[in-house]
Amino acid sequence: MEANTRSTGRLPAAFLTPGSSSFMDFLSDQSPEMLPGNRSLPPLQGAIEAPHGTTIVAASFPGGVVLAGDRRATMGNMIAQRDIEKVFPADEYSAVGIAGTAGLAVEMVKLFQLELEHFEKVEGAQLSLEGKANRLSTMIRSNLAMAMQGLAVVPLFAGYDVDREKGRIFSYDVTGGRSEETGYASTGSGSIFARNAMKKLYREDLTEEQALTLVVQALYDAADDDSATGGPDVARRIYPIVTVITDEGFRRLGDQESADIARSILERRLEQPDGPRAALL
Amino acid sequence: MSTPFYVSPQQAMADRAEYARKGIARGRSLVVLQYADGIVFVGENPSRALHKFSEIYDRIGFAAAGKYNEYENLRIGGVRYADLRGYTYDRDDVTARGLANVYAQTLGTIFSSAAEKPYEVELVVAEVGSAAEGDQIYRLPHDGSIVDEHGSVAVGGNAEQISSFLDQRHRDGMTLAEALKLAVQALSREPGGGEREIPAERLEVAVLDRTRPQQRKFKRIVGRQLTRLLDADAAGTTPTDAPSDIEETDSTTTETDNGTGTAPGSTEE
After folding, report:
1. Which of residues 185-224 of B touch A (CB under 8 A)?
2. pTM exceeds 0.90, yes or no
3. Fold of the domain built from segment(s) B13-268
4. CA-nearest residue of chain B to A92?
């Protein structure tokens, strides 16, 4: 529904009422049917077939944080999309990667981005990183009814905390439970493999380039063992989406940059299929 | 019971217009100018927190003179309108024209409704295009009319004098530093004809910059960047003699401006 400008065409009173700086609050007053959480599903037998996004990984390094995702969406045993994008900038200093039902997740991200932008415009200041993470929590919680029917959305949120001057990572569960991760985190179907790969490779003093390599390595390992996670597709030139957030803000690596990282890893894996070996003791 | 006096509709409207104009004239003026890479907003504002200019949407900026609580409400209404429209359709479907229209309807309804006091505000809604031809600037006076402006516009207390000053000197394709300098010159003019100095700390400056790589083109210019731009002018006056020449030749016309410039002053009394 457009701005409800019936009769005189003037802005309705709700638009001019001071108070909330939240777009979601405004939407729930003005046109509640547009809020994702306000839809209810009829009771169904079994799971609903819809494309699912898979693995997202994040790792922090001194000075920032990297967030990356593979490009595959699956529907049951079928590949629904080879080049889906699952990592988005949330605002200048944060990004969100999504696993779960792709359609709902993309809508959630769109609303989340708007929520942050709206607050910033109305208040003239950005939300704190914790505040942003909490807003995302609320949005996931409002999707709980859908999650119970198999349409869950589980994002990973990463950002640069301007006050504390460091990169931070927040992971979520389907009920909106939020927990801050130290070092590295992953979500989605391949998350176990990705997390274990990072567990062996992560160090606290990684440089930005090393952190970028680390997350692409982790995605490679996830794709190696999880059928729903896509590896680098050399033939079609589809490589993971890799983003980095530092005090300079959000940056998404160009296609060539991310291809170079993925190809250099691929090259090494031709000789060592299981990737770099960690020390035994 | 007392019988109310008969007041002719013309008189009632004139009184309301007078009331609104006086309220607006109490506020400081601000100017909005086109320059080569976009649109610049310049105003005198001693407050760092209460802004006269703000971002409405990706390419749309908002400027207001007059009563703070009234234009702040309109600003938030505009942000909500734009965000809701962009969420419903697409970001490209939010236009300054649509927003100006909604503002005009809102101001017009309030102005002509006897139950409400007229808003003492004058707004500017500007949208930066992908090229200079696509730039749009709308001025919205208190009564709900829309004026489609080109090049430069001034609103607030001393607006008429400042606009005639700007009209004569503004040209297309100015650099940001040139436009900023011109704006500061215009704002420094006193209603009586004198000039005063406006220090950089009291200036509020924002731009809609079409060359910004981000989707959101609105940016505030503060601190070092602002002083650098203002200083660039001072340094730039020696190599570019042409603009300074024009200033000097125009100083005679400025005095004749003051003749017309007394017109708004006299209506204020």
Report:
1. 216
2. no
3. Glutamine Phosphoribosylpyrophosphate, subunit 1, domain 1 (3.60.20)
4. B214
